[in-house]
Amino acid sequence: MPGGQPSEKSANSKQQDNQTTDDPNFDPIVDIVHDVKSKKPNAQIHAGVEPNVFQTVDKALSITDHFDFVVTPISKSESNRKSKHLDMRHMMVKNCIQGTDMLFRTSSWSNVVVGKIDEQAFHILADSDPSNNFEIYQKVQLIFEQELQWASHLSLPAVLLPSPSKQNVVPFAQLLHRAVSKCGYTNIWIRFQPDQWEEWNQVRIICEHSTKISPILELPENLPERDSQTERWFGEPIRGIVLDKNLFQSDYSLSTKHAFLLQRSFKFDIQVILRGTTNVDELFNMRSYLDDLKSQLPPLTEVELFEKPYWDYLQSPLQPLMDNLDSQTYEVFERDPIKYKLYQDAVHRALVDLKNQSSSSSPFTVMVVGAGRGPLVKASIRASVQSKIPIKLYAVDKNPNALVTLYHFKKTIWSKMDVTIIHSDMRDWNPPELADILVSELLGSFGDNELSPECLDGAQRLLKKGGISIPCDYTSFLSPLNSAKIYSEVKTFVTSAKPLKAFETAYVVKVHRGMCLSNIKKVFTFVHPNPELDVKKYDGLDLHLVPDNSRYTVVPFTVMETSTMHGLIGYFECTLYKDVMMSIHPKTFSKGMFSWFPIVFPLATPITVKKGEELNVHFWRNVDKGKVWYEWMVHNKDTGFVTPVHNLNGRSYKLSL
Amino acid sequence: MPGGQPSEKSANSKQQDNQTTDDPNFDPIVDIVHDVKSKKPNAQIHAGVEPNVFQTVDKALSITDHFDFVVTPISKSESNRKSKHLDMRHMMVKNCIQGTDMLFRTSSWSNVVVGKIDEQAFHILADSDPSNNFEIYQKVQLIFEQELQWASHLSLPAVLLPSPSKQNVVPFAQLLHRAVSKCGYTNIWIRFQPDQWEEWNQVRIICEHSTKISPILELPENLPERDSQTERWFGEPIRGIVLDKNLFQSDYSLSTKHAFLLQRSFKFDIQVILRGTTNVDELFNMRSYLDDLKSQLPPLTEVELFEKPYWDYLQSPLQPLMDNLDSQTYEVFERDPIKYKLYQDAVHRALVDLKNQSSSSSPFTVMVVGAGRGPLVKASIRASVQSKIPIKLYAVDKNPNALVTLYHFKKTIWSKMDVTIIHSDMRDWNPPELADILVSELLGSFGDNELSPECLDGAQRLLKKGGISIPCDYTSFLSPLNSAKIYSEVKTFVTSAKPLKAFETAYVVKVHRGMCLSNIKKVFTFVHPNPELDVKKYDGLDLHLVPDNSRYTVVPFTVMETSTMHGLIGYFECTLYKDVMMSIHPKTFSKGMFSWFPIVFPLATPITVKKGEELNVHFWRNVDKGKVWYEWMVHNKDTGFVTPVHNLNGRSYKLSL
Description:
The structure is a homodimer.
Chain A: E1 31-34, H1 53-63, E2 69-73, H2 88-94, H3 106-112, E3 113-116, H4 119-127, H5 134-153, E4 158-161, H6 169-180, E5 187-192, H7 197-206, E6 213-218, H8 227-231, E7 240-244, H9 256-267, E8 271-275, H10 280-295, H11 302-307, H12 327-334, H13 339-357, E9 364-369, H14 375-387, E10 391-397, H15 400-411, E11 419-423, E12 435-440, H16 452-459, E13 463-470, E14 473-482, H17 484-491, E15 507-508, E16 515-516, E17 521-527, H18 531-535, E18 551-558, E19 563-577, E20 580-583, E21 599-609, E22 614-623, E23 627-636, E24 655-656
Parallel strand pairs in A: 2-3, 3-4, 4-5, 5-6, 6-7, 7-8, 9-10, 9-12, 10-11, 12-13
Antiparallel strand pairs in A: 1-2, 1-8, 14-16, 14-17, 14-19, 15-21, 18-22, 19-20, 19-21, 22-23, 23-24
Helix pairs in contact in A: 4-5, 5-6, 6-7, 13-14
């Protein structure tokens, strides 16, 4: 299942009994987790109940339907833990974990309960300087490790921790990092308020970007001023949003700002954790409001439904020059409802212009280079039919498998058209005549990254002087990207033999959990026909006399929000002909088109960038005899920080010519 | 050859002919490299000479004796390279490298000539914005790659480049980095002025700390204000210092500041490159002054001579608990002229104090735990003889090989003394009586890092209540360390299977090319007898009732100079008894002692730190049932930057109990 946001929880709920929970054993700090995205079938808990903290699990589950799990303490909170002077030697005996693991079956534990670590212990840690109060530090460590081991023993999916104080991030993170390597299946969730992003960032770095440690976003009454301060959290692997009852107004609605934020979070399938009450009616009202809020979201469009399985799923860019595309790939491309309409419009406009300039009545020659299974041939034919301007068509492709279909169409639907099918690489074919219009679809997500410049330069000799190339030009774009999700996906590709390779490779990916950290800026532009080829002559003697499609540019960015930069996200814009544009740049996106996802160039080591800092992204497109490759690096002009050059000499990632 | 600074050049010189060089073919930008550290035997160049740039090599070698190599252009500088609008296509033909590789034999090329890359080309690069002048950039790249390939073809040991401008560090470094991976044996030297450290630092990072790229320090007339601004260069892999003739006064002497800097550099065997004249007399006068300057340095002390082979040579700390020391190790330790004298003084002082407090006339019981081949036994006996206070001596060791020697001494030189030899681990031995004095030498370079606390806690039951432990206490110290040399040495230990391990291991090393970036600060102190053991009782039931030698502390440092931090350098101070101190802390060093080199805790990724920044170093000493290990990390309080925790859970480096 590519790119989907897997829910950690499976179904659980119990018959609602609607009684209020005035049971004195009920622990009011139990949080009830509400998964707003689905109503799951019931499942019974196979366990008895003992009158202690575990009763809260049972109680919590018994009071309500449709809540997916509870967050509950997994040990009895001991008042003596509050004492900073407690002798550690006594603590181990007194604080032994209450209850028994036989209350529920493992499948219940692992589906229903998120363990809450003794918060008191961490508050003590937060208040003290652990390097001066080493016993406190050791005590918290012991409590935490015991509880985490117990949680792990119960196969709990996660435990929840309070956030560190600003002063205690390091010892806090080190405790976690040390413990997490021993706790098997259980993950660690840490509550953060939106303005605690830097603390989270430090925790993450100290813990070496462990995927077992995730933030939970706790919404305060006053949300941060800038939306980007909350928005950046959606690039983080947040596992849930905590909503306290006091955020809700008397009619159980939220402020506009809170509501907007929640709606954003629903797009990422982020769970909601309701807190601050055990009153069943209140919980239901809160939940009901959230359900309403979600239902107000427009349903996913057809394109979004198509894209959803690919959210944050990394794909390698195509190498159509080296490999022949398969049938399935052609099929996906051909299904795009927008792209070929744009091509048809472009050919139409070009034909009309040619007709207006020409006195001859003979048909115009259109060559489709890289015809594949014919979508551009069809678009050209439609343009000709619609404009009533006759054309003579050549369909050129090097893929013998595509040829089968092209010949089939020639015999059937194109039998009345002047279509000639040529089995050749466009760079080698010797045409019987030159083209008025050269039509191609060689663009990748970054424009030139599937070697369109090299192919079209090679095919330019097929075009009459003054002839038209469709596309006429294309430009690549970049922005610094924040996406811990993408970073952790890239990390899964790392091998010990080539530890840098995965981070020096570009990926085509529909980035879902991520954010641009600056405006999107132009990188390279290529124009066809290539004006360099008009001026300069081939003499066949010197390799350097072929047009040079290598590039180097420095793109300046201003950081919009203090965040982590995990790489660069790239797009393209393309002029098919005159004002017929095709774009995956978010601001000029060709609505409804789904042929291209953005491209991502990762950074080997994520870098922390601060609001207002000026970054220079250095970007190279390199060409040698056999290959094309990109290199990239980041220079922080404010701090002087530089990254190494990524993908030097194409050592990790190259496009073969 | 551990740790020495290998000279890249072997001997070469030629008969002096003392003629001035008014030859019109002589290129005045030839630099003559003078190796001040040695006079090497003559060697003839086996080559004829052609009248072009290579003649300068011959000329340069012919004019003077004792110069080790020349820095000379390896291609003819073409005036048309200065044009920014030159058509690249012509350049390749015109700029072909002049001369032939048959002028000299390869052994001469590789020993005598450092190639000077066309500086004009790099000046053009420095003056232009390469992202806007891509042709210039490509041209410089081409020139550079051609020249570097030619240099590589000639097996030149190095080529010399001018420094980048502040604006062009990135394209400059990328050119280098790209080319260097292709140039085989040949290294790249870049000239920097002392105030260009940040540019060098960026080049180094962009080039992934390549060991093939080194700086050459070019001294300006006005040296930087703070000595640390030049001093930090000695932590860098600088390959030479360039001295222009105009730095010399009319009597061919240098300013005091320049002279001092040169003398510092001689300690690191850094080569000197003389420049700015081809007048033989002038060159000789300059050289003669430098020889004098060097001769003014005091000769190496015996300790320095002993240490020299170990400069910057990484050793693993001993694990005496786990391994038995071998004879050679014992021998090295026993040769220390200071250490055992200090022990003797301490035992002497302790015996006198005991005698003064005691009314009994029976001998005092001295136990040497970890007696090895007996140096502490000897020191104790000398103390007893000297103080005329009789002692009864137990020599305890677990190493059966050491026992052989102890028994030999007992039969021979100690035959009249009351010495009992015990073959046992000090933690297990059941003594027939308790000791008045417990003598041990279990300290490592970081004090506690050879598990002295654990051993002495285990041996404390051998000591009478109120008895004396020698040593009484010890304290470890740390400072942030700049040393590219140490970093590159650590890098040589990196394996692809465990890429972090080498960087998470401590090394014992006599850091030579390096600098402390802040004052040296206290870390942990251990006291013996351990007062915790006096208060707390064993009950055999709970592991946690043994004394806890784990520690955690946060050590603040203020950065004294903008530089790169490659790790932490550690020392110890120890009180043997009362005011008998033993120390490897630079400020309190026990002069003449050579038993311990400092310890280095590396950082996996060097970090750039700026003058005045506040760093918090978090340092842990962790103990579990089977092992002791350190963890460390750095937090820059000014920028919020944190490193990961190093050596988490002792995954890379541990001391076995």
